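Suppose you are handed only these lines of text.
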Amino acid sequence: HLVENGNFQWSAPSNIALVKYWGKKDNQIPANPSVSFTLNNCKTITKLAFAKKDISTALNVKGNNFSFDLLFEGQPKEDFKPKIQKFLERIEIYLPFLKDYHFTIDTENTFPHSSGIASSASGMAALAMNLMSLEKVLNPEMTEEYFYQKASLLARLGSGSACRSVKGQVVVWGNHTNISGSSDLFGVEFPNAIHANFKNFQDTILLVDKGEKQVSSTIGHDLMHNHPFAERRFAQAHENLDQLISIFESGNLEEFIKIVESEALTLHAMMMTSMPYFILMKPNTLEIINAIWKFRNETKIPVCFTLDAGANVHVLYPENVAETVLQFIKNELVGYCQNGQYICDEIGNGAVLI
Ligand code: PMV
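From them, the structure of the protein bound to PMV can be written out as follows.
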């Protein structure tokens, strides 16, 4: 019952972790649970065209290769293909029809490429959504819940954090005793109501270093095996997530800041204490952190930072102080950004079918 051909288009956003995923077991199973804000403006938009192969072509698949073309911003992009090939290999057991089709994957990001913003989360999520749309055509009876859970599961196999880019606004990935429905296999929407203090929460991303990072996150995750502080770190992630559960309910921004900044610094502390050790922060990352602390001390405005696996700084703050904080960012932080570049984003709702 295969359909002959057609296409879909999905957009999927990036996300920023508050409790960080760093360290994994086989099959992209996280060593600890994580939680993130889904973003709104930083997105990947991917169109998937599919055409059924005729039987002789389908039976004539050479080796383990899938049949697909990859376009990035309209141009063929050969160097992304091995990553997609590996992704398709990993998910074939969940989508057995993959080798019956030739795919054209046409993808673009709303943020500048080589901005140091990882596009793997939004990119893998957008591709997973498209593949699920095809699966739904073939199996129309699936529920919406199944659709999104399986999309997140597939995205996870592309890039771990991608499983948190399917839904919004706050997504938990990884088993945690106090979050019902949480799973190591896919991300779930945070199940409880979130305090109004987090409504339209702002994330201004300061692009400190747009270069290729020296150590990939794949290698970084691996270095958590036999890491001297790994077990304590994984336990701490559970504790921090526990605290965030009550903070999301109470809206206590002071406590929120403590957890979020500590998580960011702990992530980088893990990098600095692995063997081999490495540092992804740049001098301007520290300049920005110090400037944020000074501003917060002086104004008592609840603004804080977080970091992902790179030098860029995410500045997080509530909507009602946005004007003042943005002024501060323009006056005092933009000078630390490469070419003065930054991106204004906020908490968002997840992937969308276009
Ligand atoms: O999804 P990966 O394998 O690129 O890992 C991302 C890890 C961090 O961004 C550093 C933290 C996180 O939870 O997103």
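What can we learn from it? The first strand starts at residue 5 and ends at 19. The two ends are 25 Å apart (CA to CA).
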